[in-house]
Amino acid sequence: MRFLVPVLSGALILTGCATDRIRPVPGLELIESAELPKPSRADLVAPDRESLIGPLDTLGIDVYGVPSLSLETKVDSSGRISMPVVGVIDARGMTSLELQRFIEDRLRKYVKNPTVTVNVRSSVSQVVTVDGSVIEPGLFPVTNQTTLMRAIALAKGLSEFGKLDDVVVLRTVNNQRMAGLYNLGAIRRGVYPDPAIYANDVVIVGDSPSRRLFKSLVSLAPVLTAPLIVLLQNRSKTN
């Protein structure tokens, strides 16, 4: 008989090749079943995340009943777009819904009860940088389903010498730079959740300069079972 293991915490210890010899650590529950159960509809839908419009994104703007005002346009390098009647709009940092409402408000002088739809056709501003010991480092689009594991998969996975227990995520929150140290091996085993990745995050795998930030914690890395988050000091400041 095969067993399914929903991971609540901890990890599995394999005592042999046969599935009937799997021994869970405390916190795991073994469910006897012949196959994986089907996910619910809620399991198939990722939570919505706020996505902001940025420079060089391509937008589709449709004004219902007024084809002459509908257009596809690219946000310029300063974050602005130009639209007939409405004029120049600083769209940088807006969501699609916010831009939609802004355009509707501007059009009320010329169109009765305007209905506007704004779609981001392509985005180059909502990206994550994946660097370090991965096969194909680069910039990759971020969606509401992007996680650390998925971001690394977009970079074709770890290189031959990539370190599972040495993954740094750099992020700026309220103008404060932060860094998180993660263990992909622990995430794969279900020890802790696969963290969400957001636009402008930088993921660095393996032997990288960012690893020096954690010199004092090197001894913890091999047994890291939870994310490690630190604040980065602004080196440009002088005493």
From TrEMBL:
One of its GO terms (molecular function) is polysaccharide transmembrane transporter activity. Pfam families: Poly_export, SLBB. It comes from the Bacteria. Residues 127-180 form the Soluble ligand binding domain. InterPro entries: Poly_export (IPR049712), Poly_export_N (IPR003715), Soluble_ligand-bd (IPR019554). Keywords: Signal. This is Polysaccharide export protein. Residues 47-120 form the Polysaccharide export protein N-terminal domain. PROSITE patterns: PROKAR_LIPOPROTEIN. Signal peptide: none annotated. It comes from Sphingomonas oligophenolica.
